[in-house]
């Protein structure tokens, strides 16, 4: 089991969470689809649920909250990049042209977080660990396996994420339309051109979950009210699909090709 037992290096995707209009329905959906276990958390944390897979943290699911008079936030998965200093990273994000959506906030003794958008508009979170460092299991069926930036300007994204996090974005060998995100020489995610998405799609980060059988999991998703955005297909990294949960949150699922 690919367990994670220590904090993630700065710039590495370390956590994902979902803000949804029906938390219990989402908990039930992802339990049935991916095998997660979770329940609404304490009121002091807004009911935030830390879901587990095999007894280790895998993702967060929380009820949507909006300030009075403000529209509800979108129902999407948000990925978090690790840092050792949230305040310094916030300053670097602003200096590099990013937009703060939620400034640095303490989350009890668990850690510190912020939400921001890159200059092209892709939203992401930042997590500075305290007692909680993020996902305790990755890269196995039911868990996070990949994070992918869909951007309208790859060179600009390269400059931004390099300045703010030290992430290197380099062309993937053998293709001129996909890029690797690297931290300390290790690949931690990917990037692709937004032009390859359906017209009108805004810049975003796409979350990938690993599954044992893409086609069977898609069938299970549809039976539980989910939507298929891109039917299962084979590609260089494996067999994958892009889907949305019953409340519209998009994500991808992949069965990796044998190494």
TrEMBL record:
The residue ranges of the VOC domain are: 12-129, 143-256
Task: Supply the CDD domains for this chain.
Answer: SgaA_N_like
Name of a matching Pfam family: Glyoxalase
Family matches, as PROSITE patterns: VOC (PS51819)
InterPro entries assigned to the protein according to its UniProt record, in alphabetical order: Anthracycline_SecMetBiosynth, Glyas_Bleomycin-R_OHBP_Dase, Glyas_Fos-R_dOase_dom, VOC_core
**Protein name according to UniProt:** VOC family protein
Give the organism the record lists: Streptomyces misionensis
């Amino acid at each position: 089991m690919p367990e994670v037992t220590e904090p993630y290096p700065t710039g590495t995707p370390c956590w994902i969470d979902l803000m949804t209009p029906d938390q219990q329905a989402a908990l039930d959906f992802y339990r049935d689809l991916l095998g997660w276990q979770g329940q609404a958390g304490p009121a002091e944390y807004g009911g935030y649920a830390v879901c587990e897979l095999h007894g280790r943290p895998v993702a967060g699911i929380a009820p949507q909250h909006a300030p009075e008079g403000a529209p509800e936030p979108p129902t999407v998965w948000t990925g978090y990049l690790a840092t050792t200093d949230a305040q310094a990273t916030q300053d670097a994000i602003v200096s590099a042209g990013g937009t703060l959506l939620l400034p640095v906030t303490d989350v009890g003794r668990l850690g510190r977080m912020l939400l921001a958008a890159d200059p092209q508009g892709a939203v992401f979170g930042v997590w500075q660990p305290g007692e909680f460092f993020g996902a305790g299991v990755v890269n196995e069926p039911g868990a996070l396996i990949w994070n992918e930036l869909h951007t309208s300007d790859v060179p600009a994204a390269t400059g931004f994420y390099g300045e703010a996090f030290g992430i290197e974005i380099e062309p993937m060998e053998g293709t001129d339309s996909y890029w690797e995100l690297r931290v300390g020489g290790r690949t931690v995610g990917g990037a692709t051109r937004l032009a390859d998405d359906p017209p009108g799609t805004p810049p975003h980060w796409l979350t990938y979950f690993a599954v044992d059988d893409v086609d069977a999991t898609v069938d299970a998703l549809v039976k539980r009210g989910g939507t298929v955005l891109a039917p299962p297909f084979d590609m260089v990294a494996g067999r994958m699909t892009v889907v949305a949960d019953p409340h519209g949150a998009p994500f991808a699922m992949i069965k990796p090709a044998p190494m």
